[in-house]
Amino acid sequence: MTYVIAECGQNHNGSLEMARALIDMCADPRPHGLGDAETVRPDAVKFTMRDLDAELTDEAWRAPYASMHAFGPTYGAHRAHLELSHDDIILLHDYARELGLGFVLTMCAPSCLAVLDWLTVDYLKVASRDLTNIPLLEAIAETDVPVIVSTGMANAEDLDRALEVVSDATILHCVSEYPAEFDHLNLRRIQTLTEAYPTNRIGYSDHSRGIMAPIAAIAYGAEVIEKHVTLDRTLRGSDHAGSLERDGLYRMMRDIRHLEVAAWCPDRNRQLTQAAQSKLERTCAAARPVWKGDEVTEDKLVMLSPPGDGVLWRDRAQVLGVARQDIPQHATINPTWVEPRTVRG
């Protein structure tokens, strides 16, 4: 059977009560008025854990945020409003388990993995923004928890490098657009991924409106479906518009389970998605202040977003060496600021 993840993500808008209500809806998504309709529910709910101290550069934290979806005057304040606490995540995990639902967590920093001392998750998810965040992937790989990766902000090389670390990960095709337009979805890439990675399970993370795309994705061979859910699509927040309310979740699950007993013969094609990385991808930054003349070593690096003029972890040799100038803490390191040295191994 298709493994279906109801992504609560940040659609709780920072409220533990709303998060619990989302779990309630997923545990029994039958719309009011359907009487004795069969309960067809997702296999798991998914939430996201961030460490705000390892999320943004200081400049990005202080940047004014005038979006219609803003929950604070700066982007840092907006992000802080949307975060659930460590204890909240544990409570939600226990509640979902009581209702018979699986639990999946997106991890955005190695420090978030400490929560695994208090709960057991079915999968750890790596968002596509972090597919090039090799230190995070390495930390997740050490947990031995099954891994899911999304590909929306990744090209083929990025995915291959990630799979060198988490080789048996489930791979989800997705388009990093919220909500995603139908003519951008390129669902046939699911078949491309199936051909390219025959030993990995392939799925689809959907950001489009409605229930068509997740169901069509299964016809193209997706074995895992991830779909955002919400209590109300009109709520403030960037993910609500492309999410499913109770009625939509019920109908998607009903049609998925019906489709699983049907036969299909998908076409094959190849096309890679392109996504905006300028805001979310992480690059090498200073974990602490570095003074002119000091040695810049790996232990002085931290992966932060947005990328600015920085370099990816795989290119870190460009920022290892002797600092040509003072580098503030959490500043994205421009390679011209460092006299490079050769990295071995």
Layout of secondary structure:
Layout: E1 3-9, H1 16-27, E2 44-49, H2 58-62, H3 75-82, H4 86-98, E3 102-107, E4 123-126, H5 134-141, E5 147-150, H6 156-165, E6 170-173, H7 189-196, E7 202-206, H8 212-219, E8 224-228, H9 246-259, E9 283-286, E10 295-296, E11 301-304, E12 321-323, E13 338-340
Parallel strand pairs: 1-2, 1-8, 2-3, 3-4, 4-5, 5-6, 6-7, 7-8
Antiparallel strand pairs: 9-11, 10-12, 12-13
Uncertain segments: 263-275
Average pLDDT across residues?
A: 88
Q: What is the overall silhouette? A: globular
Distance between the termini: 43 Å
Structure description:
This protein has 345 residues and is of the alpha/beta class. The protein has two domains: 3-259, Aldolase class I (TIM Barrel), CATH 3.20.20; 283-340, Type Iii Antifreeze Protein Isoform Hplc 12. It contains nine helices and 13 strands. It has helices at 16-27, 58-62, 75-82, 86-98, 134-141, 156-165, 189-196, 212-219, 246-259; strands at 3-9, 44-49, 102-107, 123-126, 147-150, 170-173, 202-206, 224-228, 283-286, 295-296, 301-304, 321-323, 338-340. The protein has an eight-stranded parallel barrel, surrounded by five helices. Helix 6 (156-165) links the parallel strand 5 (147-150) and strand 6. The longest helix is centred in the last third of the chain and has 14 residues, at 246-259. The termini are far apart.
